[in-house]
Design goal:
Elements: H1 2-8, H2 17-27, E1 30-33, E2 36-39, H3 49-64, E3 68-73, H4 83-95, E4 103-105, H5 110-122, E5 126-129, H6 133-140, H7 157-169, E6 178-181, E7 196-200, E8 214-216, H8 218-229, E9 233-237, H9 244-253, E10 261-265, E11 268-270, H10 277-285, H11 300-306, H12 310-320, E12 327-329, H13 331-343, E13 347-349, E14 351-353, E15 356-360, E16 368-374, E17 384-390, E18 392-395, E19 416-419, E20 424-432, E21 438-446, E22 463-464, E23 466-468, E24 473-480, E25 484-486, E26 492-494, E27 499-506, E28 518-521, E29 525-529, E30 540-545
Parallel strand pairs: 2-3, 3-4, 9-10, 11-12, 13-28, 15-21, 19-22, 24-30
Antiparallel strand pairs: 5-6, 6-7, 7-8, 14-27, 15-18, 16-17, 18-23, 19-20, 20-21, 24-27, 25-26, 28-29, 29-30
Helix pairs in contact: 3-12, 8-9, 12-13
Bound molecules: adenosine-5'-triphosphate and magnesium ion.
The site of adenosine-5'-triphosphate (ATP) has 16 residues, from helix 3, strand 9 and helix 10.
């Protein structure tokens, strides 16, 4: 265990209590040498970063112990599910770098689940109840008071068998009857007060069609799914802790040998992030975002389109670790992991926004020279690229001030700065349009200061980047702010200014950028050519993340 901690460099909380449990089980040969986990999404939406935590945990645990991990669709609720989601879920899991041992459907076990429900009835452990939903709630009692037994609780086994059969045959309307486990209406755990295990729903199911009009409830279905698949450790989030006695009860009644064990961990919450498929679906349906893969969405598809790498998400999941205590992680940590990953992977490009034209009056009119500029200062293996430099250039609007404030070391009239990878340049004159806006800056360069020449004659304080005007490529840039921000009441609300479009001039090599290609725009941040919007003729970049980290340990 200590070894794993060292390898990952993860904090104490990531020591992963789940692995401690597994280690003990292996020692006691509880499941022999087997470790078998599963990731069980309900195909009712796209996966989000919270699911990534569960995916990493389940698949990495299987990998660590040379075990198996199934991808199982929890498709026991026929109303909300959609095949579009199935394809998206698989793409996301693969993109994160995991592969499942088997892809399975909970609905494939409907026959078996029905058979086992009949078995429960025969044992006197389940009964058909005619109370409606409101009555069931009323009878259930509260945390302080015990519940009341249903008047239908004493039905005979024969009557229950007949009624359950009739429920299945479609004799009753939705909600008219349910099958309930017969456990204990006085249990301090409300989940044990004769929970409903089958309900009627006259709805077509994508897998079983109209074969069934009764569907098993999650708490009954899930342990059976796990048991059928030979799952050893069924990892789920903390809300299910109070359901564990029911999970165990079901498998005990069904006399399952070496039943799987449910282990709960704290779900991931992130600042500035809604993490529920239901809410995310509403944003999509109401057109508040541009689909499930909108680059502002916390979905895996959205993060991918935004420019996140699978490595950065896996690193994040490892760093936050697994614990039993709910907490909210600062989204800045996720961004930090992304920067750490991109830092050594991507090449730099010169891009200027809000451009100001520069004319170098002492540079020959028809000359262009190709300057060699390093792609990534920290990673020499990424080599150099050739960037054209000539008499007319653009610099960033933010890199010039006509009347400089204190400690401003960039371009202003009379000041000399280094043009990154090129020469020292002095601004001599500001030429304006009639309306007072700047038309161009007349500058001069000093040929002997050429980058790489070893010039040591004098030093300048500012270094700025530039783009050659003749060959500049105009690009569209999409800058993002958080989709959700805290309102005055301290609740997360939709940020009306989460997308801002701008444009810039880029050095000519940008014309070759393929959709999905990432760069550091020198001094601006990390960007990706948008998968959907980038074409041969027009390059559209998403700002992935800025260069500066706001994350504090
Ligand atoms: P949501 O409420 O967003 O719809 P869910 O839990 O209903 O999420 P499922 O498809 O049922 O979504 O979840 C699949 C698995 O992912 C479950 O094991 C669930 O516990 C896990 N999971 C979902 N959200 C999170 C989260 N925020 N952090 C960690 N694990 C999560
Ligand atoms: Mg769910």
């Amino acid at each position: 265990m200590a070894d794993t901690q060292k390898q990952t460099g993860a904090p104490e909380s990531a020591s992963n209590f789940i692995h401690n449990i597994i280690d003990k089980d292996l020692e006691n040969q509880k499941y022999g040498d087997r470790v078998h986990t599963r990731f069980p999404p309900e195909p009712n939406g796209y996966l989000h970063i919270g699911h990534a935590k569960s995916i990493c945990l389940n698949f990495s645990t299987a990998e660590k112990y040379n075990g198996k991990c199934n991808l199982r669709y929890d498709d026991t609720n026929p109303v909300k599910e959609d095949m579009e989601y199935v394809d998206a879920i698989e793409a996301d899991v693969k993109w994160l770098g995991f592969s499942w041992d088997e892809r399975l459907w909970a609905s494939d076990y409907f026959d078996k689940m029905y058979e086992l429900a009949v078995q429960l009835i025969k044992k006197g452990k389940a009964f058909v109840c005619d109370l409606n939903a409101d009555q069931i709630r009323e009878y259930r009692g509260t945390l302080k008071e015990p519940g009341k037994e249903s008047p239908y609780r004493s039905r005979t086994v024969e009557e229950n068998l007949r009624l359950f059969e009739e429920m299945k045959a479609g004799k009753y309307a939705d909600g008219e009857k349910v099958l309930r486990a017969k456990i204990d209406m006085a249990s301090p755990n409300i989940n044990m007060r004769d929970p409903v295990i089958y309900r009627i729903s006259h709805t077509e199911h994508h897998n079983t069609g109209s074969k069934y009009c009764i569907y098993p409830m999650y708490d009954y279905a899930h342990p059976i799914e796990d048991a059928i698949e030979g799952i050893t450790h069924s990892i789920c989030t903390l809300e299910f802790e109070d359901h564990r006695p029911l999970y165990d009860w079901v498998l005990q009644q069904l006399e399952w040998e070496a039943p799987p064990q449910q282990i709960e961990f704290a779900r991931l919450n992130l600042t500035n992030t809604v993490m529920s498929k239901r809410h995310l679906k509403a944003l999509v349906d109401e057109g508040k975002v541009d689909g499930w893969d909108d680059p502002r969405m916390p979905t895996i598809a959205g993060l991918r389109r935004r420019g996140y790498t699978p490595e950065s998400i896996r690193d994040f999941c490892e760093r936050i670790g697994v614990s039993k205590a709910n907490s909210t992680v600062d989204v800045a940590l996720l961004e930090h992991c992304l920067r750490e990953d991109l830092k050594t992977k991507v090449e730099s490009r010169n891009v200027v926004e809000d451009p100001i034209k520069i004319v170098i009056t002492n540079y020959p009119e028809d000359q262009t020279e190709d300057l060699e500029i390093e792609n990534n200062r920290e990673v020499p293996e990424l080599g150099n690229r050739s960037v054209p430099f000539s008499r007319e250039l653009y610099v960033d609007g933010a890199d010039f001030m006509e009347e400089p404030v204190k400690k401003y070391f960039r371009l202003f009239p009379g000041n000399e700065v280094r043009f990154k990878g090129a020469y020292f340049i002095t601004c001599n004159e500001v030429i304006k349009n009639e309306d007072g806006t700047i038309r161009e800056l007349r500058c001069t360069y000093d040929p002997q200061t050429k980058s790489g020449s070893g010039f040591e004659g004098r030093k300048v304080k500012g270094t700025i980047h530039w783009v050659d005007a003749k060959t500049a490529v105009k690009i569209r840039i999409r800058n993002y702010d958080y989709l959700m921000v805290e309102n005055e009441a301290g609740e997360l609300a939709l940020n009306p200014d989460s997308l801002e479009e701008s444009w810039g001039y880029a050095e000519p090599s940008i014309a070759k950028a393929a959709p999905g290609e990432r760069f550091q725009f020198f001094r601006h941040g990390y960007y990706i050519a948008d998968e959907k919007l980038t074409t041969e003729d027009e390059k559209v970049f998403n700002k992935i993340v800025g260069l500066k980290s706001s994350w504090k340990k």
